[in-house]
């Protein structure tokens, strides 16, 4: 399915006024891309399930923006959304000029960028952010499309690579429930142990248990 991605370029101080103006125009769903959020995550968390520190740094260097989506298969609906966005931006410009948001407050360029997108573009985009995940000192979990030679400086070649094609939530080895469970397996699984993996998903914990328990 195709849809319009309508991006409004704003400043940090322009995020809230622009969101408020959009709501007043009946646009009740919007995506906020605030680089300060990425900077906070980078400083406080180091990495997330799918974003490595270098990816967070890249996100934190971008300009703030607000994104609104409109269906491309309905001309009337898309025209209505575009008109609402334009009215909201015009209102923010007027209010900023009149000092409504405070003296000298600059809401940003408020440029509107519209692009046609397709569902197929994002279905596999998450794969770009998957990284190998070290499990203890013996294993590393990686999807089949990753070349482990590119991570030779990060993971010892003596580690056994467990290649799993992950879903969009579990199977990467980075999710806390996976890594914490793997830590317990590493600590308590002995040779000959019998392990039941309930709700196994991709089976990553079962594979680790089989390697440990023999």
Automatic annotation (TrEMBL):
Positions of transmembrane segments: none
Keyword Ribonucleoprotein tagged: yes
Domain of life of the organism encoding this protein: Bacteria
Any single GO BP term: methylation
A single GO molecular function term of this UniProt record: protein methyltransferase activity
A GO cellular component entry from the record: ribosome
Pfam family, one: PrmA
Entry keyword set: Methyltransferase, Ribonucleoprotein, Ribosomal protein, Transferase
InterPro entries in the cross-refs: Ribosomal_L11_MeTrfase_PrmA, SAM-dependent_MTases_sf
PANTHER family (alphabetical): ELECTRON TRANSFER FLAVOPROTEIN BETA SUBUNIT LYSINE METHYLTRANSFERASE
Protein name per its UniProtKB record: 50S ribosomal protein L11 methyltransferase
Provenance organism: Mogibacterium timidum
Taxonomic classification: Bacteria, Bacillati, Bacillota, Clostridia, Peptostreptococcales
